[in-house]
Write the structure tokens for this entry.
Amino acid sequence: MNGYEHDHTTAEQLQAEVELYTPFTAAVRDLVDATIRTLAGPDEIRAAQAEIEAVTARLRAEQLPGSYGVRLRDDGTARSWGNAVVGLRNPVAPPLRIESDSERVWADFHLGAAYEGPPTFVHGGVTSLLLDQLLGHAASAAGRPGMTASLTLSYRRPTPLGDLRAEAWVDRSEGYKTWAKGVLIGPDGVTVEAEGLFILPRWAREQVAPEDIPASFE
Amino acid sequence: MNGYEHDHTTAEQLQAEVELYTPFTAAVRDLVDATIRTLAGPDEIRAAQAEIEAVTARLRAEQLPGSYGVRLRDDGTARSWGNAVVGLRNPVAPPLRIESDSERVWADFHLGAAYEGPPTFVHGGVTSLLLDQLLGHAASAAGRPGMTASLTLSYRRPTPLGDLRAEAWVDRSEGYKTWAKGVLIGPDGVTVEAEGLFILPRWAREQVAPEDIPASFE
């Protein structure tokens, strides 16, 4: 397993792509929300379906053969635009924009109808999806990238849909292993606690040049 | 917390809705995949964005004020069409169609580009999202519905994007608590193991009539 591609776009090309794909993907996210919530009648639904299928066919006229992957940039950063949590081009991703300082990483974000489990609450599995990404990011930010080996979630109370915050930090490390912890925070405080073990994969230790080890695995 | 609504649609109305919304939501899922993978040029992307925004505006002319929720049907089943894992009307959901016998529950499904973490592999958090739903379903199917109290994932190997299977079963139970286990299975065998504790919420024990306790919480 490797599959990380090199990406030689200039900073200007990258910026142009950000400006093109950010509002485009946001429009598809908005359509996802409307798809769940619409009360339009059957004729309107069928007309919308036909238009969406036509747009999709045009977009697919030229496309990647598979998934987006992760592209390693010359400046050492990675472009995970297809990622299910942070992907700028992935409408399934909220997307989280993860910030960091020397001690922890965090993200403030909004979850709407597309992330529902129990009525008006975030799906418990969505909270684990987001915390997995955030804990992995905390390990990477501390210079200890790894893939998730184990993850434990403790649910303290239901997480309401709406504005939320997640935080994560490295708890301890040992050799190729790093333990990270994190929390999801709603308007009434912590809703979910997470602890994860992240391990630098064998292929990254033995088979890949140091400069090809991505700063993050997701 | 409750929020479960009663749903008095007839079987015929329900079937008509299934036939309307299944292909419509599938079209939006297909657009999500094309959004990630398209290599169309900037003009085409901008044109697609404008068309998508117009469709969304028409769909939103009449819509639910919030999320879809969960609707309890007169026959005792629940309609979780907004659910992030199984929701028939949620383009974020793959969606999983969970089958069951007296011993376990399972789902066969396909995950494409929208669920990526490391290049060509399923996001580790997506596997936890799906297993949370499946373990909760196993508890419900055994007549022991509950909300997730804790969930532990052990990652055995990376899960490739593509055709996958998940299985779950009840391990043991005690009072309002039920422990369920499950696995995610790829072409080379088990990739992720999960164990979860599900607890019947207090409001369901004390405040709600027995017929209002949903068969599942998500």
Remarks:
- The beta strands of chain A are 5-7, 71-73, 78-79, 99-100, 105-111, 147-155, 162-174, 177-186, 189-199.
- The mean pLDDT of chain A is 92.
- The longest helix of chain A spans residues 11-37.
